[in-house]
Amino acid sequence: MPTRPVVLTECPRDAMQGLHDFIPTATKTAYLQQLLAVGFDVLDFGSFVSPKAIPQLRDTAEVLAGLDLSQTKTKLLAIVANLRGAEQAASHPEISYLGFPLSVSETFQRRNTNQTITEALADVAAMHALCERVGKTLIVYLSMGFGNPYGDPYSPAVVADFTQQLATLGVRIMALSDTIGVSTPALIRPLFEELIPAFPQIEFGAHLHTTPTTWREKVQAAYQAGCRRFDGAIGGIGGCPMAADVLTGNMATENIVAYLEEVGEELKLDRQAFQQAWLLSAAVFN
């Protein structure tokens, strides 16, 4: 099976969403503009969800309007939580990807999007059809993809069953998401090794949360199993505010980049712009 090219997604949306203090719109826009200069493949820049649920991102449309996309190769991704949000995101021609969090955990699906899994799958079908009509791509994030802390059934077979349902709906990109940082190489590698050859029509990604000391083993396990799509956030900031009382940090983008370059991947990032973004992040997330 031919190896897919590496796709690197920077996730400032995930870094910002759980912060209590509101980041001014102009500050968000300036930070995202700097990230667009780096040359990431995808920028997970904002979300069209209820402002009551995620007040930090209530200004996503305003932020988008302030971005200059004329000098970047980076494609924009917006997270949505239901069909209404998908319709809002799809109305913006600047957005290429819509991301939806589907969970293998019934408990977390209700907690995260106020839906049952059955309702969420119906939304996925409608979102995929919407994306097909307007020339966008749906990415499904399979949250709790490496374990379920809520006591709902979990096994690799459960993940494979969800994947089959998504494949039947026509979903072409799926990211296994370690929403609370419970994944280990012993879970990551066998799961990707099973899914990637079984579903060649789907591009699999890894959205891993981690502690500062366990990042390398997780990235290595996913990469060696054939995964070539990785999400990260500069500085390892952020996490899902719906998942736990204490946020487990995102995978630090600088660590992902270091590993991928170590194994010989050519990422074609603007190093000076990356350094400037890293410095700016300290001011944004102080």
UniProtKB/TrEMBL annotation:
GO molecular function, one term: lyase activity
Statement: the UniProt record of this protein carries the keyword Lyase: yes
InterPro entries per the UniProt record, alphabetical: Aldolase_TIM, HMGL, PYR_CT
Gene3D superfamilies: Aldolase class I (3.20.20.70)
Source taxon at top rank: Bacteria
Keyword terms: Lyase, Metal-binding
Family (UniProt): Belongs to the HMG-CoA lyase family.
Name of the protein in its database record: Hydroxymethylglutaryl-CoA lyase
Source organism of the structure: Hymenobacter ginsengisoli
Taxonomy of the source species: Bacteria, Pseudomonadati, Bacteroidota, Cytophagia, Cytophagales
